Request: fold
Amino acid sequence: MACTLVKAVIALTATLVVAVASNPGPDSHRREIKEAIAAHSQLAAVLRLGSLTAITSVHHSVGIASYTTVNHRLVSEGAFGLVCVADLSW
Reply:
């Protein structure tokens, strides 16, 4: 019983360490936002609206995950090195 508990604690600790170490930073979020906006509209890509949105975004990190907001709206979330961009059709 004690051995199983120790293994579970070690596995949980290892998972948390990996999550914190691979938490995407602001640059990863900005890059994904730019790419998502450019893929959504060719006009937005020409006008570089992705860059403007990425610059005005605010990055928040909660240790094991992170997210980015623009005007208090969730734009992207990330964890374990991956960033997902929300639907940007506001």
